[in-house]
Amino acid sequence: MRISEQKVVTMNYEVADDQGQLIDRSEEGGPLAYIHGNDQLIPGLETALEGRGKGDKIAVDIPPEQGYGERDEEGVQIVARNQFDDSVEIEVGMQFEAQDDDEGHQIVTVAAVDGENITLDTNHPLAGKNLRFKVEILDVRDASTEELSHGHVHGPGGHDH
Ligand code: ZN
Fold first, then answer.
1. Rounded distance from Cα 5 to ligand 1 centre (Å)
2. Which residue from 2, 25, 29, 35 could staple onto 14, CB 3.0 to 4.6 Å apart?
């Protein structure tokens, strides 16, 4: 069976940046399962997996426009330390959800702490990066009606309910 829309794909993956630095891998959390064609993966990875089958191993380099997008420097803001609750220790790399004008909420990352100035970044941490994926396809099957109505995979690598 080949990967196409509404197939459940189970895979192991690892992703590194341009310098070959490992960013993430599926090993620890177990294989990832997703429904193909549901925008659950970045576009470049879905395109690379299309038409592949169980047992295939692929390596693909994905540019930002097919990944998490280009960085938007308007997403970087400096705010005063006193904008935060005193009880919160602000550290570089911290992430939290902030209210957004239109979309409800977004993830904000603390990019720098300089005395009273805190630099916040609303860009996805992987925005602007070339991503080198290595994927091993472990299984390809049809999604069940229930999985399609929920929009996610049930069982190993997916939701357990
Ligand atoms: Zn479900």
1. 18
2. 25
